[in-house]
Amino acid sequence: MSTTQQVSSLLGEITPARFMAEYWQKRPLLVRQAIPGFQAPIGPEALAAMAAREDVESRLVSAFDGQWQLQHGPLTSLPARDKREWSMLVQGVNLHDDACDALMRRFNFLPLARLDDLMISFATDGGGVGPHFDSYDVFLLQAHGQRRWRISAQKNLDLIPDLPLKILQHFTPEQEFVLEPGDMLYLPPHYAHDGVALGDCMTYSIGFRAPSFQELGEQFLQFMLDSIDLPGRYADPDLKPVKHVAEISPAMLKQVTREINKMRFTSEDITVFLGQYLTEAKPGVWFDTPQETSAFDAFLARASASGVRLSRKSQMLYTDDTLFINGESYEIPENDSALLQNLANHRRLSAAQVRAAGQDVQEALHSWHDEGWLFCPAGEDDAQP
Ligand code: SIN
Ligand code: CO
Predict the structure, then answer these.
(1) I need a labelling partner for 151 at 20 to 30 A (CA). Which of 48, 253, 280, 336 fits?
(2) Is ligand 1 within 6 A of the CB of residue 142?
(3) Nearest to 96, CA basis, from 134, 58, 151, 136
(4) pTM above 0.85?
């Protein structure tokens, strides 16, 4: 199926261009049968097994006897399946399962720089995380059973204080929908919502991140720490005896201000920072390195026959002249920019593309292979992705 067909089915009768113009970051959209006949690739048992893992981020939320409770994973035991009002939520399922990764990547009319992850929740009857809002855009795809969503454009987003979860103090629902498997609800950021399971239910959330400027500013200053270069030291050979020993003199302030103002942030600094920041693996994500590192010639022989594919955990983005992979930047050799952009966009290179790459790129592929960032798929032909 082509990308256009897949997207138009995901958005019903609405084209991606119309969705972006009328709904994205603006208002909710309910798509009945966004994925007709949707079969959840991960069921409740497989999800519970993931939630028990150390390398997977999970939460258990319950509202037993009207008391909200939150437990962070790994979740080694769960309430009984026939007990009402609990919910298990597993973040980043796309990092661990090919089918979930492929499902998340069907939203490829949106830039990867905004894509966060696929989260899956399982809830028993009455279960949910309460009325709340998120700071991110989210597509809520019903995967199993039914969920009743109530949503509101309310401006009052005050939260109940001193709860382990973010729950709205005043929720005034304006619309209500019951979602069946394959139905999908898009919500823009800060849209109040409450999803309650009607019987056992699974919801897949495809989330899109939007970092706050405060976060970006703090991380940028951290990044710049490594490159600050201010030679010299404060000096005052003309200092005179002072009358007021505790005073910081205007002369001292002036000299320090002049030197501090020499620090400049170039657009290149900001580009490199942003690319590295956006591709950095989240805490707790570990790459599966190959059992043995390979010599360059042996790697090239294999990759030239099989092509290469990015690991599910790898994040790759690019600008005109720089490629970013998993928090590192790589200057793109001019002749290989189409090839590397292809790798970033399609997450694979065919055998023929590997053979056509310049030596610098082949060496980079080799080192990314040894980091576990990409691999040589067994039994791939060299067709264009
Ligand atoms: C859920 O799946 O239970 C919660 C999803 C959300 O409200 O964002
Ligand atoms: Co939410």
Answers:
(1) 48
(2) no
(3) 58
(4) yes
Q: How far apart are CA 104 and CA 94, in angstroms?
A: 7
The rounded distance, in Å, linking the Cα atoms of 185 and 123 is: 18
Q: Is the CB of 195 under 6 A from ligand 1?
A: yes
Q: How far is the CA of 247 from the centre of ligand 1 (A)?
A: 57
* Residues 169-203: b if buried by 16+ CB within 10 A, e if exposed: eebeeeeebebebbbbbbbbeebbbbbbbeebbbb
Amino acid at position 267, single letter = S
192: β partners: 152
16 in ligand 1 pocket by Cβ < 6 Å? no
Coil, strand or helix: which one is 71? strand
> In tens digits, what is the pLDDT along the chain, a chain of 385 residues?
444 555 557 999 999 999 999 999 999 999 999 999 999 999 999 999 999 999 999 999 999 988 999 999 999 999 999 999 999 999 999 999 999 999 999 999 999 999 999 999 999 999 999 999 999 999 999 999 999 999 999 999 999 999 999 999 999 999 999 999 999 999 999 999 999 999 999 999 999 999 999 999 999 999 999 888 899 999 999 999 999 999 999 999 999 999 999 998 999 999 999 999 999 999 989 998 988 788 999 999 999 999 999 999 999 999 999 999 999 999 999 899 999 999 999 999 999 999 999 999 999 999 999 999 999 998 644 333 3
> Does the Cβ of 62 fall within 6 Å of ligand 1?
no
* Residue 10 dihedral angles phi and psi, to the nearest 5°: -60, -35
Beta strands in the chain (DSSP E): 29-31, 58-62, 69-72, 86-90, 115-123, 137-152, 175-179, 184-187, 192-208, 308-310, 316-318, 322-325, 328-331, 348-349, 374-375
Ligand showing the shortest atom-to-Cα distance for residue 207: 1
Distance from Cα 99 to the centre of ligand 2, integer Å: 23
Q: Residues with Cβ < 8 Å from 222, sequence gap 6 or more? A: none
CA of 122 from ligand 1 middle (Å) equals 10
How remote is the CA of residue 159 from the centroid of ligand 2, in Å?
A: 14
